[in-house]
Amino acid sequence: MEAVQALACKAGLNLITDHAMHSNNRCLVWHLPAVDAGDSISLDARA
Fold first, then answer.
1. Which of 8, 29, 38, 46 is the most buried (most CB within 10 A)?
2. Does 7 have pLDDT greater than 80?
3. What residue segments make up the domains of the chain, in order of their start?
């Protein structure tokens, strides 16, 4: 989970909620904050 969180953070995503599910599954809800028109953002996490 830490690696996923780090990658998402690098891509500009914020974890909103983590729903526990059956069979050790999880439903993660992420949010990408809005950006001003003058700002630039790379959605490619490798950038």
1. 8
2. yes
3. 2-31
